[in-house]
Specification:
706 residues, alpha/beta, 14-stranded parallel barrel, 39 strands
């Protein structure tokens, strides 16, 4: 019974000696005919035998050198082109699916695509030359009928030469296409393996500011790319690698649809006397984007004096100093970083000093923002918020200002008209101001008319002010904006200056709307002269909002509180059910806070398209001074240590398992390649041994000419 391969190749006859003409005849061709004939000879003498040898149906040709060898069955057992395409498509699909889980596998997918392209090209070239040789072979056979020639047996050519010839033929085109020299072409990736290459960007015509760059190694560098006058507007892909030791902004300015992504920056120490300073980008222009970034163990120090007014202040941040309109920052993780300003009139923040664009999905842990001089704005999200910040999560962090008129907040120092801060989650974090009229809040120090603070969840957080007229709140210190859906669990607010009001909601209500305030445990204290503490709002501007005003009525009716102390007196407000408390924190970041407000440890398993296993991105336990839990299903902080320790152990085990899975995949791939190589070696060795036996038998049986 014929196999499918036998059916395809039955009846095809090839001359035993591929050199069927004399050398003089071979070289007599001119022009393209001679070149194609030469290629045909190479293909049939080197490439085709190599592929022949891969077939399980391959039969070793006779080594009899006195007679032409005629094949009456399949000499070439290459898969059909459609079968080859199917194999390539299937392998590519598997590689891409695996690459979605393990990004390193993407490299294998790229290699496979190049090999498949080369194989397809080689197959078509061989088929073309075989068709031409079939016609020439018929004519050559008629001429040489009856002539005896001494053929060159296929087994006489070293197998290493055959293999090398086939691989060179297959690899020539992909290799040349995969190794571009740097150029001005913006669609061709330029590798960045070291600091020397990084220094060339924007300084060398072959490395334009509009180029597409891919970092291929970890780099220690303090290079700055571009400037405010000549911004970077290309694409910088960090390739999930690190840049360590930065001393200035990595980018002077990113603008005109420029993108920086998949990059980790570690141990940057930036000290600046410039108006704009940061670790990643001093400034972001319209249309630019920073995404999938991890910044760790870094600090920014600015000592430059600014001037009053948002545009005239100095701007400093870890990610960027000034983010302009229509720019985006998203999917950013910051761990153990700080920004400090020792000059007056500074806007400073972890994400941005001044944010006019869009910021979303940022997580900050164990970080600090501090200002020392008057007229400062400090926040984890941004010192000044004029754009939109959404899904900001802050763990174990603090914001401090020491001087007059210096506002501080976890979300932002101040939110201006049109600014929005939504879905803020703060755990075990604090805000403190020491100067007069220096308002503080978990959401923001101040919030202007036309702005919005919505969906704030604070757990085990503290807000404290020391100066006169320095209002404080879990929410906003002083507001004219809308403050909606603020939830505080085990939080404390304390003011000690005269006329310094305190609240869970709004410290000093001067307009806008404050509604949806929910507080469970915790306390509010205002100890200064004429200072007021309360839930929802401490002090209300009675000239604008007299008693009975509809806004005040809605505010009071929306309050719900369970065992919150106000200046030492216990308050319970509203009808709070157990089922309601079980879903109290459903608007918080679910990676770190359960619906019933239990704080959970959560490792950072990756950022963007990158993976990491060594960063436990988890909130610390609140201090032991937190009050004991009620029977509400909320976390009991006094007894949480053991439970969270066990959970952390489970998390580490999960992280190890993930690493093991990656190692397992790598070992599996290596084993498969090794087995394939072993079988190939045994197959070749076995065939070579058979060839040698046949050769010896033929030689021993060769008739004696005498």
């Amino acid at each position: 019974m014929q196999t499918p391969t036998e059916k395809n190749y039955a009846g095809v006859t090839y001359p035993g000696n591929v050199f069927s003409t004399s050398p003089d005849q071979e070289n007599s061709g001119t022009g393209n005919t001679g070149q194609l004939n030469g290629l045909s000879v190479i293909a049939r003498s080197a490439v085709i035998p190599f592929f022949q040898s891969l077939s399980p149906y391959y039969q070793q040709p006779s080594a009899n050198n006195n007679e032409s060898v005629t094949y009456d069955s399949k000499p070439v057992a290459l898969p059909s082109q459609s079968m080859l395409n199917d194999i390539c498509q299937g392998a590519g699909l598997v590689a891409q699916l695996a690459g979605a889980w393990v990004p390193q596998v993407k490299v294998l997918a790229d290699v496979a695509s190049k090999l498949c392209s080369a194989g397809s090209f080689a197959g078509k070239a061989i088929d073309y030359m075989q068709e031409k040789d079939a016609v020439k072979g018929e004519l050559s056979g008629q001429k040489c009928t009856g002539e005896k020639r001494r053929p060159i047996a296929q087994s006489s050519m070293p197998r290493g030469v055959l293999t090398a010839a086939a691989m060179i033929t297959m690899g020539q085109i992909p290799v040349s296409a995969a190794s571009p020299a740097p150029s001005n072409a913006t669609d061709r990736p330029i590798p960045v393996p070291n600091r020397e290459t990084l220094e060339q960007i924007g300084q060398n015509g072959s490395y334009p500011l509009s180029g597409h760059y891919v970092q291929t190694q970890d780099i220690n560098s303090d290079v700055t790319i571009g400037s405010e006058d000549q911004p970077f507007y290309g694409d910088y892909d960090g390739g999930c690698h690190k840049i360590t030791g930065q001393r200035h902004c990595l980018f002077g300015k990113v603008a005109k649809h420029g993108v920086v992504r998949d990059l980790s920056m570690v141990q940057a120490h930036v000290e600046s006397n410039d108006k704009y300073s940061a670790v990643v980008a001093c400034k972001m222009g319209e249309g630019s984007r920073l995404e999938n970034l991890l910044i760790e163990h870094s600090r920014v120090l600015t000592n430059k004096d600014g001037e009053r007014g948002a545009a005239s202040m100095t701007h400093a941040g870890v990610i960027t100093g000034h983010q302009q309109e229509n720019s985006n920052i998203e999917q950013v993780w910051v761990n153990n970083c700080s920004v400090t300003s020792t000059g007056k009139s500074g806007a400073v923040g972890i994400v941005s000093g001044r944010a006019e664009g869009d910021i979303q999905h940022v997580t900050v842990k164990n970080s600090r923002v501090k200002t020392a001089c008057d007229d400062s704005r400090a926040g984890i999200g941004a010192g000044i918020v004029e754009g939109r910040i959404s899904h900001l999560t802050v763990l174990d962090s603090k914001v401090e200002t020491d001087a007059t008129d210096s506002f501080a907040g976890i979300g932002g120092g101040i939110i201006y008209d049109g600014g929005k801060l939504e879905k803020l989650t703060a755990v075990n974090s604090s805000v403190k101001t020491g100067g007069v009229f220096s308002d503080a809040g978990i959401g923001a120090g101040e919030c202007k008319s036309g702005a919005l603070l919505a969906g704030t969840t604070a757990i085990a957080c503290n807000v404290k002010t020391l100066g006169r007229g320095a209002d404080a709140a879990i929410g906003v210190g002083e507001t004219r904006c809308e403050v909606l859906d603020t939830r505080a669990i085990d939080c404390f607010v304390n003011t000690s200056g005269d006329y310094a009001d305190a609240a869970i909601g709004t410290g000093y209500f001067n307009g806008g709307k404050t509604e949806g305030i929910i507080a469970v445990r915790g306390g509010i204290t205002a100890s200064g002269e004429s200072a007021v503490a309360d839930i929802a709002a401490g002090q209300i501007d009675v000239f604008s909002y007299p008693s009975g005003h509809s806004s005040i009525t809605k505010m009071r009716k929306s309050v719900q509180a369970v065992k919150v102390t106000v200046n030492g007196g216990l308050q319970n407000v509203g009808n709070v059910s157990q089922s309601f408390l079980d879903q109290l924190c459903d608007i918080a970041d679910q990676r770190f806070v359960a619906n019933d407000c239990r704080v959970m440890n959560q490792p950072l398993k990756g950022y963007g398209n990158c993976t990491t296993t060594d960063l436990l991105f988890a909130p610390s336990l609140p201090s032991s001074s937190a009050p004991s839990t009620l029977n509400t299903g909320l976390v009991n902080y006094s007894g949480a240590s053991t439970a969270l320790t066990a959970l952390a152990t489970g998390v580490q085990a999960g992280t190890t398992l993930s690493t093991g899975a990656i190692v397992g995949i790598s070992v599996g791939v290596a084993a498969a390649l090794g087995l394939g190589a072993l079988f190939a070696w045994r197959y070749y060795s076995h065939r070579q041994a058979d060839s040698d036996v046949v050769t010896m038998r033929v030689l021993s049986e060769e008739p004696n000419d005498e």
